[in-house]
Structure formats: structure tokens, C-alpha cells
Fold this protein.
Amino acid sequence: MGSDSEAINYAWFDPQRLHPEVESLIYWRSAARSGAALGAGLALLVALACCSVVSVLAYSSLLALTAAVAFRVYKNVLQAVQKTNEGHPFKWLLEQDVSVSAERAQSLAAAATAHLNAALAELRRLFLVEDLVDSLKFGVLLWCLTYVGACFNGITLIILAWIALFSLPKAYEMNKAQVDANLELARSKINEISAKVRAAVPLGRKAEDKDK
């Protein structure tokens, strides 16, 4: 059981599937950068919870613009005093290419379309009860979400998800063997119960099984 559970590859905790920059942040490869990203995200989300989106965007942009203007003026005064000509302090940023290529846009659109089509197909399958057991499990999930919605609003859930993004992957990495073993045990129990329900309820079998 131990060797099998260690071989399980749970995609949502697999760092190899992530962009290197994202993997570095959520796995705390650099504590300073990860802490700054976590703190900045929390500050933004708390601000959104207290103020309107327009106010948060306006104040954030005004703060960034003020800092940029102050830094530009400071560098210009420093260059005048030292009689140097270092050029624009943000020259390296102004020279960066921020345009999105047509190929990149098409790639993102194709990926988004593929995910959307997969989600629509899965929702159709669940709501039209192609498999009774899967639809019942989906119903239980929706029922649980009604209690989650009664306790938390949307922005609170996003804040909790942001904190989980910076804590669960690292916790999993540090306790991979134990977590994999428990997840495999839970998965086997769920599959066992699902198999019993499908055997007891003919409607739980998929359409292709009925045709055989």
C-alpha cells in the first residue's frame, strides 16, 4: 500500500505542471518573494472586501503612479546634483515588449475553449443523469456548497483560497507519503461505495454498459 500511494501523482499538487515562476512562489523557494506575493494578494483581497472594485483599482493605480513619479523626480535630482546622465530610470521597463502575439492569443483562446467545452460536456452529463451515481455525488457536493455559501461570501472564499494556495502545496510536499496514503484510502472507500451503489441500482450504470 505504501509503495502504491507514493506512486500516486495528484495533478493539483504536482509542481512539474506549473510555470516555474508560479511553482517558485507557492512552494516558497524564495521566502521573501513568496511572503511578498502572499501579503500583497491578501492586502488587495481585504481591500476589495471593504471597498468597491473601482475604488481599489483607483487607489492602487494612484499609489503606483505617485511612487513612480516620486522615484523619477528623485533620480532626476540625483543626476543633476551628481552631474551624471544615466537616462530614464525606467528605461529597462520601457524597452520590454509587453505586446501579446497573435500566436499566443490564439493558443490561449484554444486552451480556454477546450476547457470550456470539457466543462460544458461534464455539466451536461451530470445534470442529465448519464450516470446516476456521479449525479448523486454532484448533488451532495452542491448541497454542501449551500452550507458553505451560508457561512462565507465570495470574497471570503477567495481569501481562504489564496491562503490555501500558499500553504497546502508546501504542506503536501513536506508530508507527501502520509497524505498520499490517506487520499488513496479515501479514494478506495469512495470507489467501493460507488461500485456497490451501481450494482444495486441499474440506472447507475452508464449507457454503454446497458447496450452490451
Q: What stands out?
A: Confidence is low (pLDDT under 50) at residues 1-12.
